[in-house]
Specification:
about 550 residues, 4 helices, six-stranded antiparallel beta sheet, mainly beta
């Protein structure tokens, strides 16, 4: 999602990248389907060599995301799976907890709201990206291996919008089946609209990268990504061209990108009335089948067809079949409906156009602009990154996901799901819950599952007397279904985001990921506040482990 950004300095860059012509959409393809080839691709010099080279940084600006239409005016049903007390002892044992990019991090100054905090662990490193900057850390000590660097350092000599604009909205994944990093960054909200994707040559994020640029007719906002057997998956919230508005679901040729060859992309443009989707991101040691369809999921409530108006919570499950030998045979299924427990969407009735009632998460602190303590953005109309997938030894598959729901009289609670399927059976809800053990709001969550089926959910916490903070709740596979444990505190806030409602943005997303080295340790990163301010957020990077793993 486009950030509110402070003005940055400009510098000069020169260089060139290999240009590959795009394949135009064929009239014979199904409506909404396109097949393109990366407009540009190359293999970079080692990132550690590019780090000292000049880049161009465009001045920042303040923008507001165009609104998605909700048509929500009345409350929905009560939440039958709300967990109002945590009786299970805290399950998340902290292994590491160190500072990420943010206020007081050496050689770094926050320059955007929200930070879009994301990151993942590799075999030896942790890569964190906060909108327009990233850092590579030793995952055992938190020591800086490279950075902080502006995001466009990764695109030095690549030319194009990602190098020149450094627009943010980053995504970081780790391909544990090839031991490669996969990162994305969009080119911003001005034409040409592009998504830049880079795949590391090795498991060392400071080394060389295979780099790609894909182009679109509209603005590819709010990108999210996942790793699958045959493809790197992506979803976007498209704005602009009437033929390319709403969710776009894409698959990129993983095999070609691992090899550094020109890569095709298959995309399906959904109608603007369909939900904003997340792509599955595979965890564990069992890679999906070579031709297995890739899952995508979204909330039905944003169409007025789900919980917020009818009292029925539901997820829309899509599957994408991709055939890289014959890309025109690729297909995106019609959605299958997975019914969950009732809920009411948080910040009921909000609109992105006004940005007023969307800021319903309370926080303490002094009055701002004479209107009293202001709330934070719940962003409750969508599933939160990641949609984590895993396959177990007995053959069953699991997907875990989270989003924010209303929890009257509290503004927000974290709703989480474990979905399950066996063989060709449809996805169903195995367990679910809305975590609200006290009267503080919890939102902007991320969830992942370890190799034993244990879960950890990380999120932000805030309330009238609680400054924005970070906590994690967990559970083992043996704990009572639908119940999370008592919380583990990762960071305690000491200030609020004292800002105006037009920039009450918070987080946009956070990231819980699984360590590929042991398939047990769960890494979480998000923002919190250490003092009252606007461009004054901090982040933490924490690793936790659940009992028995």
């Amino acid at each position: 999602m486009r950030p509110t950004r402070a003005v940055a300095a400009a510098a000069l860059l020169a260089g060139a990248a290999l240009v590959i012509p795009a394949v135009t959409a064929s009239a014979a393809l199904p409506a909404g389907m396109t097949i393109t080839t990366s407009a540009t691709h190359d293999t970079s010099r080692p990132l550690r060599e590019m780090a000292g080279l000049p880049t161009v940084i465009a001045p920042g600006h303040i923008t507001i995301e165009p609104g998605r239409k909700h048509n929500i005016t009345t409350p929905g049903a009560a939440d039958p799976v709300q967990q109002k007390a945590a009786t299970i002892p805290a399950r998340a044992r902290v292994i590491h907890n160190f500072a990420g990019l943010g206020l007081n991090f050496p050689h770094f100054t926050p320059d955007a709201i929200p930070p879009d905090t994301v990151g993942a662990a590799g075999l030896k490193q942790y890569m964190q990206w906060v909108n327009s900057s990233f850092v590579i850390l030793d995952k055992r000590t938190g020591a800086v291996l490279l950075g902080p660097l502006t995001g466009n350092k990764l695109w030095v000599d690549f030319e194009g919008p990602c190098e020149k604009r450094n627009a943010g909205d980053p995504v970081v994944n780790y391909d544990r089946f090839a031991h490669r990093w996969v990162v994305q960054q969009f080119g911003g909200d001005a034409s040409p609209y592009v998504e830049c994707v880079a795949v590391s040559k090795t498991d060392d994020a400071t080394g060389a990268w295979n780099r790609y640029q894909f182009t679109y007719k509209s603005f590819n906002d709010y990108p999210h990504a996942g790793v699958w057997s045959h493809s790197y998956l992506a979803t976007y919230n498209m704005f602009g061209d009437s033929s390319e508005s709403g969710t776009k679901a894409c698959a990129m040729d993983r095999k070609a990108m691992l090899a550094g060859r020109a890569a095709k992309q298959v995309c399906f443009q959904l109608a603007s009335s369909e939900p904003l989707l997340l792509p599955a991101d595979a965890d564990g040691t069992r890679i999906p089948g070579a031709s297995e369809d890739a899952p995508f999921a979204g909330l039905l409530s944003i169409q007025g067809e789900g919980s917020a108006t009818t009292g029925t919570g539901a997820l829309a499950m899509y599957s994408m079949h991709v055939d890289w030998a014959h890309p025109t045979k690729s297909r995106l299924s019609k959605p299958a409906i997975v019914h969950g427990a009732d809920y009411t969407i948080a910040c009921l009735g909000y609109s992105f156009e006004s940005r007023v009632t969307s800021a319903c998460i309370p926080q303490p602190g002094p009055a701002a602009a004479g209107v009293g303590p202001l709330g934070l953005d719940a962003l409750s109309d969508r599933l939160m990154f990641r949609l984590s997938w895993r396959k177990f030894a007995d053959g069953h598959e699991a997907l875990v996901a989270t989003h924010t729901v209303d929890a009257l009289p509290v503004a927000g609670a974290v709703r989480w799901y474990e979905l399950r399927r066996v063989g060709t059976s449809p996805w169903r809800v195995q367990q679910q819950g809305s975590y609200l053990p006290d009267l503080d709001s919890r939102w902007m969550g991320s969830i992942a599952m370890d190799k034993n089926g244990g879960l950890a959910v990380g999120y932000s916490v805030s309330g009238p007397a609680t400054f924005p903070s970070i906590r994690i709740a967990g559970r083992t596979a043996k704990d009572p279904a639908g119940q999370l444990s008592k919380e583990t505190v990762i960071a305690t806030g000491f200030g609020d985001q004292a800002t105006a409602s037009l920039i009450a943005r918070w987080g946009d997303y956070s990231a819980m990921s699984v360590d590929p080295a042991d398939d047990c340790t769960l890494w979480y990163t998000t923002e919190y506040m250490t003092e009252v301010g606007v461009f004054d957020w901090s982040t933490r990077i924490a690793a936790v482990r659940l009992p028995g793993c």
